[in-house]
Amino acid sequence: MAELTRDDVAHLAGLARIDLSDAELDRMVGELGVILESVAVVQQSPIEGVEPMSHPMPIVNVTRPDVVRPSLGAEAALAGAPEADQQRFSVPRILDED
Amino acid sequence: MSTQIDTEAIIAWDEVLEHFDPVLGLEVHVELGTNTKMFCGCATEFGAEPNTQVCPVCLGLPGALPVVNEKAVESAIRIGLALNCEIAQWCRFARKNYFYPDMPKNFQTSQYDEPIAFEGFLDVELDDGSTFRVEIERAHMEEDTGKSLHVGGSTGRIHGATHSLVDYNRAGIPLIEIVTKPLRGAGERAPEVARAYVATLRDLLKALDVSDVKMEQGSMRCDVNLSLMPKGTTTLGTRTETKNVNSLRSVERAVRYEMCRHGAVLRAGGSILQETRHWHEDTGMTTSGRPKSDADDYRYFPEPDLVPVAPSRETVEELRATLPEPPAQRRKRLQSDWGFSDLEMRDVLNAGLVDLIGQTVEAGATPAGARKWWSGEIARRANAEGTDVASYAAERSIVPAHVVELEGLVSSGRLNDSMARQAWEGVLDGEGTPTEVADARGLELVQDDGALEAAVDKVIEANADVAQKVRDGKVQAAGALIGQVMKEMRGQADAGRAREIILAKLTS
């Protein structure tokens, strides 16, 4: 497989909103490279004629009827929130200042 | 990134059409009217207190297991069938990864390359009566996001906000996203095609009874993709995606505005930046949003917590059998049943009166009567209040039975047309049923020929010259006498009966 580049890691870090210093970027390129290399061994599996799967059980159409079940309640829902205000989850500024 | 040459400049409509062919793409999101969310049993009621309709699944808490709503899948299949789509034999959900607090899971559960419905079309009727076929690329299932309240900025906008407050009641409500293929060949009719498509789709979804399709409440939302091709070429230009255009009129205006804006950039030698645009209802313009990320950025992968959806062909055919008569076909049938002219039917459609007239005819009124009473005074009043007749009537408990009763009062001879109008005004004023209003206001044609004859005699005596003309054979002169008699009777007489008596006295 194509090697992981420094740009790839910087791009992923940007998407994940993780601020990495230059030194950290360098280290992550190396470490992630080793991890990918280790996992890459699965690519040697003989998969000719094997359908890709996304679920371990060969089942389909697991549904539930459209019937309302009790929700958590706002107090319980917000109990784990670091910040809450006006019965809503308070989250940090979404956009960076221009 | 290319240099932007005054992106907000626009050129004249005629200049756009002279040099370019538009290519349209429309994405419509519809919130299904299910009782519960897509993957959990939380209620979906609009306007509930914040964060009262949430649970571990829609909050993305660790260990929660989503399970698909059966009704939502059925609705998705019915929508696909109504759009003449193929229904997938087997398809999966996928995670669309992104980091934005409107989804607490950090991904939206959607469908990627395996939509439940694909390859369909919707025929759209334009104002001139011609039909434009809109090819449908796909309709897929996904879930809605939470609602954010941006705090600290000047106008509640995200720009300049210090933090945001999020309500996840809406997160997880079933959505169907319906995507058209790139639509070419609409030319100068592109804005009209866009509006007509969204209107036709709205009518279809309403007839399917899968959503309340209220654009103003956000249960139906439209994104407009647009690009221009220089005339004589076939290479697609760079497109922009204008988000959340939430009324039919705005859809039409947004297409037109973006065509003129793209035209200005391209004519000046610039290039269009592939980006999201925001539509502003007040100014009728769009402004730049974020640059559009490539699909790869979302790192889609099959959702491992959900099993595939594989509707059997029997299920699909059972659902096909539940499809309603297509709205366009129904309109044609009703127009023929009701004997309305094209113009009358168009007025009825534009005023949103089809259902109301249908119910009124079913309740026993004549189609002409139903149309007459639902489109006159009540339409004027509804319009003055900025609403439509159906909502106006519903709010005041004015029902089809009232129209039936009013017609009955006329056909039985108790009221003439002008009295019926007064009775109807009373009904609209909230004074009760037509009969109650007629009783209270003393509206009643005088049935007593004696009183009518006395009035006729009086009028003939006072207008001897006119009476002589009638005697001499000028029957049309009787009209002036009838008017006088009606005045004498203070309107409470049957003009037809008055005419009979006058002619009997003067010509026999």
Automatic annotation (TrEMBL), chain A:
Pfam family, one: GatC
Enzyme Commission code: 6.3.5.-
InterPro entries tied to this protein: Asp/Glu-ADT_sf_sub_c, GatC
GO annotation (BP), single: translation
Keywords tagged on the record: ATP-binding, Ligase, Nucleotide-binding, Protein biosynthesis, Transferase
Gene3D superfamilies in UniProt: Glu-tRNAGln amidotransferase C subunit, N-terminal domain
Transport among keywords: no
Region listing for Disordered, in residue ranges: 78-98
Quaternary context: Heterotrimer of A, B and C subunits.
Family: Belongs to the GatC family.
Protein's UniProt name: Aspartyl/glutamyl-tRNA(Asn/Gln) amidotransferase subunit C
UniProtKB/TrEMBL annotation, chain B:
SUPFAM superfamilies reported in the protein's UniProt record: GatB/YqeY motif, Glutamine synthetase/guanido kinase
The Asn/Gln amidotransferase domain, residue ranges: 355-506
Enzyme class at the top of the EC tree: ligase
GO molecular function: ATP binding; glutaminyl-tRNA synthase (glutamine-hydrolyzing) activity; transferase activity
Function: Allows the formation of correctly charged Asn-tRNA(Asn) or Gln-tRNA(Gln) through the transamidation of misacylated Asp-tRNA(Asn) or Glu-tRNA(Gln) in organisms which lack either or both of asparaginyl-tRNA or glutaminyl-tRNA synthetases. The reaction takes place in the presence of glutamine and ATP through an activated phospho-Asp-tRNA(Asn) or phospho-Glu-tRNA(Gln).
Subunit structure, as described in the record: Heterotrimer of A, B and C subunits.
Superkingdom of the source species: Bacteria
Protein's UniProt name: Aspartyl/glutamyl-tRNA(Asn/Gln) amidotransferase subunit B
GO biological process, one term: translation
Family of this protein: Belongs to the GatB/GatE family. GatB subfamily.
PROSITE patterns noted in UniProt: GATB
EC number: 6.3.5.-
